[in-house]
Write a structure and sequence with these properties.
Elements lengths: L1 H15 L9 H27 L7 H31 L7 H4 L2 H32 L13 H4 L3 H6 L2 H6 L30 H30 L5 H25 L9 H22 L9 H33 L8 H22 L4
Length: 366
């Protein structure tokens, strides 16, 4: 009886620890390091360089398309390229136990989303106190990311005191200021400094959004590189798809980095963030090639590790993509106000759909 149990256990371990599919072709695998490095750099640095230097500045409509196309890519990445693989990994039959009894990929993504929201609530309180301290204003002022009721409703006393003409002149903007992400790229003379009318809270909110997005994307890029380096027959198709995958994902990240009005003290931060994304996948590919004979992507440890980190990344990108990139831009941004605001918002929406659709299509192969 005991011997039978041992045999079953060993069989289970074997089904959960297969060899990888590495089949040689070392030259083309090494080329992937440099080709994907180039595609990642193009996607990430092009918006950043264009927003800083006039000699490669893109027309405003190109920047507009890049911005919303990239947002769609980020959202689709969360659903198709992160949550689905995480579900496959943590739902693999060989894991058994609790993994067979509960959809852990979705649970971890959900917990990550709420943890991130809690973190932002705490960050909001910290920023509020920091600004109050710097300004010396005991009364403080409303943090616009979450919205203060005073921003949406007028006080009764104000309504009684103001005349009709004063109401027209003093009419308040009913939308939170933090949601008003900059919708024009910076001029060269403004490099490294916040715009004069940039509210500090909006600035800190932008920083938080960018760092969250960067964190989620980099997590994902590590395992993408490892998987490519030890893939087998599907290597060529995966290689081609990942070139575009990294470029489009970098475009989404790079555009958001470029749209942030970095302070002078953080003038090197956007370049560091772009470099971190650019090098993550190529380094992961190189590491994968180094352990190509021992790394088993189907092993129990690898399945759990990949599944957990993909789930965490999915939760991060759900929050960043839907809240920061979609809701903020479309519902509360000042970009779509005015006479042609609705027409412009529809164009942005369909551009967003194209980005999401194309990235979702790439999920057929990677």
């Amino acid at each position: 009886m005991d011997e039978s149990i041992v045999q079953q256990f060993l069989l289970k371990r074997e089904t959960c620890e297969p060899d990888n599919d590495y089949d040689g072709r070392m030259g083309v695998r090494i080329s992937a390091v440099f080709v994907i490095l180039a595609s990642s750099a193009i996607g990430t640095f092009l918006p950043l360089l264009s927003s800083r230097y006039s000699f490669i500045r893109m027309p405003s409509w190109v920047f507009f398309i890049a911005k919303y196309f990239g947002s769609g890519v980020i959202v689709a990445t969360a659903f198709i390229h992160l949550l689905e693989p995480a579900s496959d990994s943590l739902g693999d039959e060989c894991l058994g136990g609790t993994f067979a009894e509960y959809p852990w990929a979705f649970g971890i993504a959900l917990m990550t989303l709420f943890a991130l929201f809690f973190f932002e609530i705490c960050a909001f309180q910290w920023v509020e106190r920091k600004i109050e301290t710097e300004s010396g204003d005991a009364q403080g002022h409303s943090h616009s990311h979450f919205g203060n009721a005073d921003l949406y409703t007028k006080k009764l006393e104000d309504e009684e005191e103001e005349t009709d003409s004063n109401k027209e002149v003093k009419k308040e903007n009913p939308y939170p200021k933090h949601f008003q992400h900059a919708h024009e790229h910076q001029d060269p003379e403004l490099i490294g400094t916040p715009l004069e009318d940039q509210d500090k809270e909006s600035y800190y909110g932008q920083l938080l959004s960018v760092f969250v997005l960067e964190f989620g994307v980099i997590f994902h890029s590590v395992f993408v590189g490892l998987s490519l380096s030890v893939s087998g027959d599907e290597f060529i198709s995966l290689y081609i798809v990942l070139v575009f995958h990294q470029m489009f994902e970098g475009l989404g990240l790079g555009t958001r980095i470029a749209l942030t009005n970095w302070s002078k003290s953080k003038r090197y931060t956007p370049w560091a963030l772009a470099l971190a994304y650019t090098f993550t996948t190529p380094i992961a590919i190189a590491i994968g090639l180094g352990v190509r004979t021992t790394y088993a992507p189907g092993s129990r440890r690898a399945l759990i590790t990949n599944g957990v980190f993909d789930s965490i990344s999915a939760g991060i990108l759900f929050y960043a993509g839907i809240v920061e990139l979609m809701a903020h831009e479309f519902l509360y941004s000042g970009e779509f106000k005015g006479k042609d605001g609705f027409k412009k918002s529809l164009l942005a929406f369909f551009t967003l759909c194209w980005g999401a659709g194309l990235m979702a299509l790439l999920g057929k192969w990677a």
